[in-house]
Design brief:
The protein is 30% helix and 15% strand. By secondary structure, it is of the alpha/beta class. The chain has a single domain, classed as HUPs (Rossmann fold). Bound molecules: zinc ion.
Length: 314
Amino acid sequence: MTGLTPSHPLTRFAPSPTGHLHLGHVVNALYVWGIARARAGTVLLRIEDHDRQRSRTEFEHSILEDLAWLGFEADRMMVRQSGRAAFYEDHLERLKASGLAYVCSCSRKEMALASPDIPGQEMRYPGTCRERHLEWHPGLSWRIRLQPGDVAFDDERMGRQVHSPSEQCGDLQAMDRLGNWTYQFAVTVDDFLQGVTLVIRGEDLLPSTGRQIMLAELLGRTEPPTFFHHALIRKPGGEKLSKAAKDTGIRELRAAGESPGRVLGRADQAERRDGAFPANLTIVPPPAPRGEANRGTLLPTAPSPPTRDSSPAG
Ligand SMILES: [Zn+2]
């Protein structure tokens, strides 16, 4: 169904301005620009500020400044999700017209009470409001009806994947109770409208893929993008890098006198499992792909963003 490797791909780097850039973002940027450049593709920069309560202009400035310092330059004009409400509204309207969207009044707490809490599994919306036909007013959310069934796709690195969105998460929220467009809805509309053909992101977002493919189809997208989920660098014990982390923040590395080339070299080495930087970082191996063999051969061995120098990350 999906998994064709696009030549001249249109891909994107899509940070949320809810914190400063850290080494995990740099690893993602190396993949995005590295793969795009190796395949004569195009990189879009999208600021994912859909969460109005958590997004800050100061973080956007800081992210853009750090990207420029590292030499990552997008090929198209930057877009901000906060300026795209009309597109999200338009697509929600279409779903409403097809009877695929409905109003939900459930809070997270109510959802938690209604759904059995299974350790290691995400919270599934049980469909409480599906047939309640509520009128929307501020304070209520919008959900999209997902049909039961599997979505299969071929991740470029992790191989064949089969997801069951309706089992995993239940009906998707498009707009939350605070009036924010959700990550799932906004990125799916954006990837569709912006013509993104290759999504390159960390494997923590792998579970989102089946539902995004399903939603894209409901929105009228006939050919979903191809996906490449890369490994995440983590701290010992499996802890994710956080935006508040002082040890891997690009701000802090710059303040400590690091050069762009050295930071890129360190991110590159961390990504290659050398564990060189920071000394206590490790790469967690990906979960075993289901079905066919892991392809995993598409990443160029030496992604080369424009200003990267060859200084090894000691
Ligand atoms: Zn509900």
